[in-house]
Write a structure and sequence with these properties.
By secondary structure, the protein is α+β, with helices and mostly antiparallel strands. It has one domain: TusA-like domain (Translation Initiation Factor IF3), CATH 3.30.110.40. Helix content is 28%, strand content 32%. The chain contains two helices and four strands; from the N terminus they run βαβαββ. Strands 1-2-4-3 form a four-stranded mixed β-sheet, covered by helices on one side. Helix 1 links the parallel strand 1 and strand 2. The radius of gyration is 11 Å and the shape is globular. The termini are close together. The relative contact order is 0.26.
């Protein structure tokens, strides 16, 4: 099991989710993908994507500067 980081800061919707979708096939079951994003719509987008695909959204948080961090377990 590995943790893989994906920095999508500076990308706007739908690019962060598209980057996640492109990376998922390279990961193995049990891996954790940690995504950094600053797109305002990222938290609801990643939650909806995780629900739609059946992936486990472990956490999604936002700091005081509008930067988001999410973790998905495959």
């Amino acid at each position: 099991m590995a943790t893989v980081e994906l920095d999508t800061n500076g990308l706007k919707c739908p690019q962060p989710i598209l980057k996640v979708m492109a990376l998922i096939p390279t990961l193995k079951a049990g891996d954790i993908l940690e995504i950094k994003a600053d797109c305002p719509s990222f938290p609801p987008d990643i939650k909806a994507w995780a629900e739609k695909t059946g992936k486990a959204l472990l956490m999604c948080s936002t700091d005081g500067e509008g930067k988001h961090t999410a973790q998905i377990q495959l």
